[in-house]
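Hi everyone, sorry if this is the wrong subforum. Our group has a chain we'd like a structural model of before ordering constructs, and none of us has done structure prediction before. Sequence below.
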Amino acid sequence: MSGKHSCTLESKDWKRKLPHKIIIGRQEPETIEHVALKLVSYLFFYRDRLQIGMNLHNDSIPFIPDLIQLDYELRPVLWVQCGECTVNKLNKLAVKVPEAEIWIVQPSIDAANDLLRAMAKAELRRKRYHLLALDREMFAEMTSLVRSRNDVLWVSAAMDPPEMHFDFNGMWFEMPFETLVF
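Answer:
Right subforum, don't worry. Here is the predicted structure as C-alpha cells:
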C-alpha cells in the first residue's frame, strides 16, 4: 500500500531551523519502518537543500536516494539510504557520487553490523561509508506511533553521549544511536 505521511515539525534546536511541514511518500514495497527511518534521518541530517526521495533524472546515477543534498551545481554532497540497501548498490554509489558523504541508516546495531560484514566480504572501498545505527527497541516504539499525520518536536542531538531528543506524536524519546565508519 502506498501513501503519504504528513509531519508537522517544530525545532527547539537553534542549529536546525526545520521547515514547518514535510511529506514523506511511501511506495510499494516500503514499510512504515522505512517511513520512520526517513523521518529520523531527515531530523538528524537536516541542512539547507535536504530533499526526501528526489529523483535526480540523471542517467549516470540510476538510483533514488532516501535523502539527498545537492550543491549549487546540482551534484550530490550528501546521500542517505535508509534500511535495507544492497552491497552492490553501495559499491556503485561510491563511484557514481564521488564527492558525496554516504550514510546508511539502520534500525539497530545488529542490522548495521550485518551490513558491515557484507560490505567487508564484498571488499567495498574503505573510509567511504558511514552508518547510523538506532536503538532497536526505541525505534520500534517510534515506528508503532507513525500515522498519516504526525507531530514532531525536535529538541537536540548530541554525539557525546550519542543521543537524539525529540517528541513524536506525544511520546518523548531520548534515542541512543551509534555511528560507524566503513
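For your construct planning: The mean pLDDT is 96. The radius of gyration is 16 Å.
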